[in-house]
Q: What sequence folds into this?
C-alpha cells in the first residue's frame, strides 16, 4: 500500500510524540513527582501507529497496562494525558484514572487497562455494537504476550469467531510478561492459537511501521467486510522496564542498547522514507522540534495544573444516584 | 392487569423494553437455546424458560446465544454497553460470578469513575440466586452482598412479580450497570401485574406490612417469609412492619432509620452468608444512626456460616424460615419487656 506524503508525516509525527512522551516520563518519574505505576511504550511505537493509522473515531480500541502509545495513536489529547498521569483535575479522566486507565470514549479509546487480559472481552462488545448498529466500525484489542495467556483473551478469540465479529486482536509480544520471558511462558505460538479458533493470523516485525501498517490494513479490511476476526502477532521490544523503577536484571547485558542501535522503529522509518525520497530530512526534523516543544509544554502545564479537590472524591461513580 | 407469575413479569418487561428500544439486546447461555442444534430453535429460553419467546420475535441479532464463556460474554456486554447498546446479559446462576467477576468489578463498575465521568455503561446482568431447590453449594448462593460491596454497581432484589416487572424496566432504562437478582424458587409465584410498562425507582423501600412494635427488614424471597412471620406475630398481639429495601445499592437508608426510630426494634433477615452480608450492613447502619431509639439489641436472621447443603434435611434447616423470623421478633419484644 502506497502512503501519501501526509500519511507518512502523520505516522512519523505520532511515533515521535509517543517516543518523546515516554522518554520524558522516564526522566520525570525518576524525580519522584509522578505518582503510582507507569509502564512505558518506548520502542513499540510502530505497532500502535501502524494499526491506528487505519482507524477513525467510529472504531474502538482497548489497550493494556502499557497504554500511552495506543492513546496517542488513537488521537487522545497529549496535554490532557500528561495532566492525567500527574493526577490533575483537568486530566483526561479528571485525575481519577491515571496512567493505567487513560480513556477517551469519544475517540473510540476504551481505556488502558490495569487488568492483564481485561480488554479482549470488552472489544467483543464494542465489535458487537458496531455490527448491531451497523456503524461500519471495527474493534481492536491490544494484548501483550502476558495477556495472551489469560483465559479472557482465549475466550474472546472464541466468542469473536463464533459471533463473526469485526474484531482484531493485536498481540504485542515484547518478549517479557513483567520479568518472565515469553519464550518460556507462551506454549505453542500466537499464530497456532489463532488457527485453533479458526482465525487467520499474521506475524509481523513490530519495529517496521510499514509491515505493521500493511498487515493491520488487511485484518481491518477483512473485519469491515464482515469476514470476521483475525490476529496480528507483532514482535517488538520495549526500551524500559515493565514499570518505571524496574531494574531489568532479567534482561541480557547490552540488550536494549543493541535494539536501539539496530532495530529502532523511528530510525528505520526515517531511513526508509528519506532514502526512497518520499520525505526529506528537514520535514522530519521539523516534526522532531514540534514534538519536543509539545512535550515540554505538556509537562510544564501538568506540573502547574490544579489537583482535584474534596468535592471531586464523590462524583462520577454513577450516571444517576 | 392480570394474574402473572414472576417469570411472566420479567419476560414482559424484557419484551416491552426490546420493543421500545432497538438498542436493548439479550445475551447469554441458552437464552434462546438450541442454537446450531438439529432440533427446536428457542428450545429453552434460559434454563427456567424466562426468555422463551423472545428469539422468534426479535431474532438472532438481538437474542444472542453464547458459548459457555462467562468472562467473554459478560465482558462483551460491558464493552457493548460502553459503546452504545443496552445489553441485558444473563449470568445463569449468581454463583458463576466467580468466573467473570473481573469484567463486572474491575471493568463495567469502574468505567465511569476511572474515566472521569465520561463513560456510561447501561448494562443489566440478570442472575438467579438463592437456596431451596436442592441445587447444592455451587448453584444456591445469595452473593448479592459481593456486588453491593462494589461502588459503581446497582443491585436489585425483587420480592414479587409486580416489583420484578417495574424494577426490570427501570434497570434497562438506567444508565449504570445493574445486577438484577432473581430468586430461583420464586418464578411461579403469581399476583396481579399491570399489562403496560411501568417503572419502580431504585432506592425506594416498600413496606409490605405496617406495624408499631418491631421493624423486620428482609430481601427477595425472605420478604415473603417475613410477611408470614408478621401475620403470625399479629395473632400474638405483636405489630410488625416488614420493610423490603428492593435494592441494596442504592439502599433506602432513610426508610430503614425512620421505621426503626418509630418501632425501636429491628430484625434483619438475609438469606446470604452471615458474615459481611446485608444484615450486618443494615444492623451497623441502625446502630450507628439511631442507637438511642433502640429498645432491644438488633437481631439478625441468616443461614449459618456454611456452604449451602444439598440434602433436603439440611437445606431446610439452613434457610431462614418464617418460624425463625417470628422467634427473633419475639426475642426482641421480650428484651424490651425485661427493660420496662
A:
Amino acid at each position: 500500500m502506497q502512503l501519501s506524503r501526509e500519511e507518512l508525516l502523520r505516522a512519523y509525527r505520532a511515533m515521535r510524540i509517543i517516543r518523546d512522551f515516554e522518554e520524558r516520563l522516564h526522566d520525570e518519574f525518576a524525580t519522584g513527582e509522578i505518582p503510582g505505576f507507569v509502564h512505558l511504550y518506548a520502542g513499540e511505537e510502530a505497532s500502535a501507529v501502524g494499526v491506528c493509522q487505519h482507524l477513525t473515531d467510529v472504531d474502538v480500541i482497548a489497550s493494556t497496562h502499557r497504554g500511552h502509545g495506543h492513546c496517542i495513536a488513537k488521537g487522545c489529547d497529549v496535554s490532557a494525558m500528561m495532566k492525567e498521569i500527574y493526577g490533575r483535575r483537568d486530566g483526561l479522566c479528571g485525575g481519577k484514572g491515571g496512567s493505567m486507565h487513560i480513556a477517551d470514549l469519544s475517540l473510540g479509546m476504551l481505556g488502558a487497562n490495569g487488568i492483564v487480559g481485561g480488554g479482549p472481552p470488552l472489544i467483543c462488545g464494542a465489535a458487537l455494537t458496531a455490527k448491531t448498529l451497523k456503524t461500519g466500525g471495527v474493534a481492536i484489542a491490544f494484548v501483550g504476550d502476558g495477556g495472551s495467556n489469560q483465559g479472557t483473551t482465549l475466550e474472546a478469540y472464541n466468542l469473536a469467531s463464533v459471533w463473526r465479529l469485526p474484531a482484531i486482536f493485536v498481540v504485542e509480544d515484547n518478549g517479557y510478561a513483567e520479568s518472565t520471558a515469553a519464550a518460556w511462558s507462551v506454549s505453542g505460538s500466537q499464530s497456532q492459537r489463532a488457527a485453533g479458533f479458526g482465525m487467520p493470523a499474521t506475524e509481523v516485525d513490530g519495529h517496521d511501521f510499514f509491515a505493521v501498517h500493511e498487515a493491520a490494513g488487511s485484518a481491518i479490511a477483512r473485519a469491515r467486510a464482515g469476514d470476521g476476526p483475525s490476529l496480528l502477532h507483532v514482535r517488538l521490544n520495549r526500551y524500559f522496564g515493565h514499570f518505571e523503577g524496574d531494574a531489568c536484571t532479567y534482561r541480557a547485558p547490552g540488550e536494549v542498547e543493541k535494539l536501539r542501535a539496530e532495530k529502532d522503529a523511528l530510525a528505520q522509518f526515517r531511513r526508509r522514507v528519506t532514502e526512497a525520497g518520499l520525505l526529506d530530512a528537514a520535514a522530519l526534523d521539523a516534526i522532531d522540534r514540534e514534538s519536543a516543544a509539545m512535550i515540554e509544554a505538556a509537562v510544564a502545564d501538568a506540573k502547574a495544573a490544579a489537583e482535584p479537590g474534596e468535592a471531586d472524591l464523590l462524583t462520577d461513580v454513577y450516571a444517576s444516584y | 392487569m392480570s394474574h402473572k407469575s414472576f417469570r411472566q413479569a420479567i419476560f414482559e418487561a424484557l419484551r416491552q423494553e426490546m420493543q421500545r428500544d432497538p438498542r436493548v439486546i439479550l445475551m447469554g447461555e441458552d437464552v434462546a437455546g438450541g442454537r446450531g442444534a438439529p432440533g427446536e430453535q428457542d428450545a429453552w429460553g434460559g434454563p427456567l424458560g424466562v426468555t422463551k419467546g423472545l428469539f422468534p420475535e426479535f431474532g438472532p441479532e438481538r437474542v444472542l446465544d453464547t458459548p459457555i464463556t462467562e468472562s467473554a460474554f459478560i465482558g462483551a456486554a460491558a464493552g457493548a454497553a460502553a459503546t452504545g447498546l443496552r445489553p441485558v446479559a444473563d449470568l445463569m446462576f449468581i454463583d458463576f460470578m466467580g468466573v467473570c467477576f473481573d469484567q463486572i468489578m474491575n471493568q463495567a463498575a469502574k468505567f465511569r469513575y476511572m474515566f472521569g465521568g465520561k463513560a456510561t455503561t447501561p448494562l443489566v446482568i440478570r442472575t438467579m440466586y438463592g437456596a431451596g431447590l436442592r441445587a447444592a453449594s455451587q448453584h444456591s448462593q445469595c452473593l448479592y452482598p459481593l456486588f453491593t460491596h462494589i461502588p459503581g454497581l446497582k443491585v436489585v432484589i425483587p420480592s414479587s412479580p409486580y416489583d420484578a416487572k417495574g424494577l426490570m424496566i427501570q434497570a434497562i432504562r438506567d444508565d449504570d450497570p445493574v445486577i438484577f437478582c432473581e430468586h430461583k424458587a420464586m418464578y411461579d409465584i403469581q399476583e396481579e401485574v399491570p399489562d403496560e410498562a411501568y417503572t419502580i425507582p431504585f432506592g425506594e423501600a416498600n413496606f409490605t406490612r405496617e406495624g408499631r412494635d418491631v421493624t423486620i427488614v428482609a430481601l427477595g424471597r425472605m420478604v415473603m417469609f417475613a410477611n408470614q412471620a408478621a401475620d403470625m406475630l399479629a395473632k400474638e398481639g405483636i405489630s410488625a412492619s416488614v420493610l423490603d429495601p428492593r435494592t441494596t445499592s442504592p439502599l433506602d437508608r432513610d426508610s430503614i432509620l425512620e421505621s426503626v426510630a418509630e418501632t425501636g426494634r429491628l430484625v434483619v433477615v438475609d438469606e446470604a452468608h452471615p458474615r459481611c452480608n446485608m444484615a450486618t450492613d443494615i444492623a451497623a447502619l441502625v446502630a450507628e444512626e439511631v442507637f438511642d431509639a433502640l429498645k432491644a439489641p438488633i437481631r439478625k436472621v441468616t443461614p449459618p456460616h456454611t456452604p449451602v447443603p444439598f440434602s433436603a434435611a439440611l437445606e431446610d434447616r439452613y434457610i431462614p424460615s418464617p418460624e425463625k423470623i417470628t422467634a427473633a421478633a419475639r426475642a426482641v419484644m421480650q428484651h424490651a419487656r425485661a427493660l420496662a
In short: The beta strands of chain A are 60-62, 139-144, 167-173, 176-177, 180-181, 201-205, 230-235. The first strand of chain A starts at residue 60 and ends at 62. The radius of gyration of chain A is 19 Å. Residues 5-271+278-307 of chain A form a domain with the Rossmann fold fold (CATH 3.40.50.970).
